[in-house]
Amino acid sequence: MNGVNYCPPAPAGAEISLVRAVRGPILMIVVGTLFAIDHQGLAPFSRTWPALLIVIGVLKLMERSAPRTY
Amino acid sequence: MRPRSVVGPLLLIGFGVLLLLRNVWPEIPLFTLFAKYWPYLLILWGTVRLGEVLFWHSSGRPLPANGIGGGEWTLVVLLCLFGSGLYWGSRQSWPNMRISNRTLDVLGESYDFPVKLNVPAGKTPRIVLDLGRGDVKVVGTDSELVQVTGHQSVRAYSQDEANSESKKAEVTLEKVGDRILVRTNQEKLSERRATAMLEIQVPKGASFEGRGKYGDFDINDINGAVEINSDNAGVRVRNISGPVRVELRRSDIIRATAVKGAVEIRGKGQEIELDEIDGPVTVNGGYTGELTFRRIAKTLRFEGTQTQFRAEKVAGAIQLRPGSLLLEDVEGPMRISGKTRDVQVAEFRGELDLEVENGDLELRPAAGAGKVSARTRNGNIDLILGSTAKFNLNARTERGEAHNEFGSGIQDETSGRGARLTGSNGGPEIQLTTERGHVTVRKGSSSPATSIMPQRIPDAPAAPPPPVPATVQQ
Lengths: 70, 474
Known about the structure:
Number of strands of chain A: 0
Oligomer: heterodimer
Number of domains of chain A: 1
Structural class of chain A: mainly alpha
Largest interface: A-B, 29 and 38 residues
Mean pLDDT of chain B: 85
Mean pLDDT of chain A: 74
Low-confidence stretches of chain B: 93-106, 469-474
Order of helices and strands of chain A: HHH
Distance between the termini of chain B: 92 Å
């Protein structure tokens, strides 16, 4: 290795790095959706924000259950 | 090599497109649009990044340790703060509050309480309405009664709660001195729980003054003055003999037809349509939609944020749309000034003084046209003259070409990078100047073969006949 700093696309490690990589985009989509719902007047953000916690929790669980390599 | 995201370049492109749009149409309400739609930007951004990660994964490329980097998250947080701030700032008077209201109804039920009130008022009462939220229709009749019918809706979780709330916010009608007061008393409830839908029949000679927070005013067939003041309203007035004054913080449409007195409109909004106005018209404020003025018998003054104009009489029509201003069959002395706008003036009489920064000008003077002075910094100028027109022309471009399609009587000369057209047969002075663009003079009719107006305003549907007034209950 020449000091290149990335997760190798090895089959076993792929799952965990994928879950980590999609975490950000998914959170962003959820935040956007909650604000869109708020602006449509359907439900205020102050009421729907716990959905973010649920999504973060689910992503963490997926990370844990994905196969790990050390 | 680590794959790089396309979001950065996309953001740059989108930002450029927005700024360009704003330069082409200065009236485009960018901030309002952003305040409303920024969450979708976030969704789109997230979707693009998600798509990228999945694509890199499936093509076996290395994935970044985190899908979204620290700098990107900072941008996202800034976007959220900025977007929410704009949204809350503009929320108070949101144009489609109607839709969100309906969805908010899900939180409770709407209970209607009928309103039927009347009071004798004489021939020329002054009606003062404190509407709050809701729509009202005012109709002049031959009776000497003021009658209020319709309903007030109260949102509540149960019939009992609705009953007690409606007692607090009852519609009242009372005579105080020479004034007739109509109140919805909505301020006695917590905000936005009540909405009124009223029809008020008034003696023909009445004058009307209305205040509102949100909702439409529809005023027909009265001989007195009309004054409307609202935070957010659509206003339609028709067949009014007195002066009409409208002041709105926000509106989707203001339409006035067949008004004998002066019309004065102030504030902000989208569309305005004025037709058959016998008195002078003054419009002052920021409007983002289409503005149409037809058959204005006296002076019309328009003071917008980007454009100002003044005409002595509008026998035809004036139409102001994003990026363009069309005038047809108008009388001067006229003054028009604007920033970025194409201007067409057809069939005009009297003097014309026209100046824009960016935009093409097309002028078709009629037989009675006076001195013309037209300037643009960036744009072409077309002058269309009748074959028997009298003129003393001096048209100049500092950088561009001059085209003489009129024929003999006009000389063209080039000088440096510019050119000039001159010619006189003893008519009024016509001065045309562009800093960058072509100047063309050609033969044609003062009124174009097809009207330059894209469309005529359809006449508003006739008001339904007023119901037979009920007798006073003793």
